Amino acid sequence: MPGKPAPSYRQRWLLPALIVILSLTVGGGLLAREVYRKPQPEDTGEVAATSVSTLPPEQQPGPPTVQLTPDAAAHPEDQRVRQLLQTYFDAINGRSYDRWKTVVTSARIQSQPRDEWLANYRTTHDGSILVYRIEGLPRQQLQILVAFTSVQDPADAPPELPERCIRWRLVLPAVWEGNAWKLDIVPAGTSPEHVKC
After folding, report:
1. Of 11, 58, 120, 197, which residue is least crowded by CB atoms under 10 Å?
2. What is the b/e burial string over 101-128, where b = at least 16 CB atoms within 10 angstroms of the residue's CB?
3. Rounded to an integer, what distance in angstroms lies between the CA atom of residue 147 and that of residue 194?
4. What is the mean pLDDT of residues 154-164?
């Protein structure tokens, strides 16, 4: 009675060859994932937790450094937006209209002349600035969801909330103007969230 035919040379090496090919494919995929992954932001203090810490009244408004949540830090324009907002808030805290003009659109400058701007921010100090999200829009526009705390003379606070310390949460529009991102006029009818600290 004849026995089973002996496996050919090709059949004996088929399974090990498939295992090697599969292993190389998986390994190559893992390596490619590491090579093309966006680098995580370095621990420079710019990436923060998603909640704003509650400070005692004497420490308000908190640090003036703009921080990003991990979600905002994952956006391709994260560092440009962080620097844009840092200059914006530094200008307000330093009462520098000329510096403020470098980071806002020409339309916003026209809508808020120097004397009006200085009167609006004469006692304002902003801090605890946290960018929650950056969203890209068509026609080179961004929406930046930001929260911050302001302290001011209650007489300079919004009429509907005449408080010394206010927590704000709003969406700031940014457009590409003059080869840079600039903060634009907040659309009419937009109502920022603001509550007493």
Report:
1. 58
2. bebbbeebbeebeeeebeeebeebbbbb
3. 9
4. 94
- What is the β-pairing status of strands 141-151 and 165-176? antiparallel
Q: How confident is the model at residue 30 (pLDDT cuts 50, 70, 90)?
A: very low
pLDDT band at 57 (very low <50, low <70, confident <90, very high): confident
**Residue in the structure block whose two tokens are 């840079």:** 180
Residue 159 token pair: 């009429």
pTM: 0.73
| Pair 68, 80: CB distance under 8 Å | no
Report d(CA 80, CA 37) in Å as an integer: 20
CA 54 – CA 127 distance, rounded (Å): 12
